[in-house]
């Protein structure tokens, strides 16, 4: 399979890539990269759509049918978060208390997980529920609450948290939507900040670590030419909305 996604961890000592349904992780601290390569089993659904490191030792992987959380530590189990359609993008807060998927059905699906120590131990497999039901389940010590946030024009192709995990930027259609995760239940019951003004669909985004500035590349790659780069400040957006 063709390599579709490549990521490195924050320390720059580990790299991961997706090829089809399989995840490859390489320890870059030595010279013999091939002998330090680990191959994780194929995900249950379709091909891998997105991968991201959470810290230095955890990976979240999006695919058709849900999200997998992998630990790069030897012997650790993973967590499966199921969803009924294609998950195109994935992100998680630094403490892994929230995992978010950008979905084909024009929403972001949010999984609120239990305590980090439960997840780090890799206890059990977590099964998802239907969209928007606010389901709450227990899976061998890992508590799961999940719900969806909609209002997007098209499929959600990008999701990114800021460094603190308090804001999550997402792209779907011609708008960039920022959700506030500072509440007890994340963005549940809140109104997001929406950045408007693109004439074409956003195809990707870059979120700065401080998350005061989000740069969104509009669907501006026509004939391999970049046409537009828009910038917004969150504080200016908040003032304009309020």
Topology readout:
Blueprint: E1 3-8, E2 14-19, E3 22-27, E4 37-40, E5 48-54, E6 58-71, E7 79-92, E8 98-103, E9 108-112, H1 116-120, E10 135-139, E11 142-149, E12 158-161, E13 167-172, E14 175-180, E15 193-195, E16 202-207, E17 213-218, E18 221-222, E19 225-226, E20 230-233, H2 234-241
Antiparallel strand pairs: 1-2, 2-3, 3-4, 5-6, 6-7, 7-8, 8-9, 9-11, 10-11, 12-13, 13-14, 14-15, 16-17, 17-20, 18-19
For the sheet with most strands, the description reads: 7 strands, antiparallel
Helix content: under 10%
State the low-pLDDT regions, or none: 116-133, 211-242
| Strands in their spatial order, largest beta sheet | 5-6-7-8-9-11-10
Oligomer: single chain
Structural class: mainly beta
Question: What Rg is obtained from the alpha carbons, in whole angstroms?
Answer: 18 Å
Strand content: over 45%
The helix/strand order is EEEEEEEEEHEEEEEEEEEEEH
Mean pLDDT: 77
Overview in brief:
With 242 residues, this protein is mostly beta strands.
């Amino acid at each position: 399979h063709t390599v579709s996604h490549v990521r490195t961890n924050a320390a720059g000592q580990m790299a991961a890539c997706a090829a089809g349904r399989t995840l490859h992780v390489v320890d870059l601290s030595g010279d013999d990269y091939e002998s330090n390569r680990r191959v994780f089993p194929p995900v249950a659904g379709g091909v891998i759509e997105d991968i991201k490191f959470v810290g230095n030792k955890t990976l979240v992987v999006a695919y058709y049918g849900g999200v997998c959380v992998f630990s790069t530590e030897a012997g650790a189990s993973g967590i499966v978060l199921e969803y009924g359609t294609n998950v195109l993008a994935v992100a998680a807060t630094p403490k892994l208390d929230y995992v978010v998927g950008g979905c084909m059905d024009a929403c972001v699906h949010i999984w609120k997980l239990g305590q980090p120590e439960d997840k780090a131990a890799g206890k059990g497999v977590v099964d998802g529920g239907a969209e928007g039901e606010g389901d709450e389940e227990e899976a061998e010590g890992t508590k799961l609450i999940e719900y969806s946030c909609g209002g997007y024009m098209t499929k959600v192709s990008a999701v990114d948290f800021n460094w603190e995990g308090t804001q999550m930027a997402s792209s779907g259609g011609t708008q960039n939507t920022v959700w506030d995760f500072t509440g007890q239940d994340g963005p549940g019951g809140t109104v997001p900040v929406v950045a408007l003004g693109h004439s074409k669909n956003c195809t990707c985004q870059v979120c700065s670590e401080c998350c005061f500035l989000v740069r969104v590349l509009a669907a501006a790659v026509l004939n391999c030419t970049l046409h537009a780069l828009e910038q917004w400040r969150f504080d200016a957006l908040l003032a304009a909305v309020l």
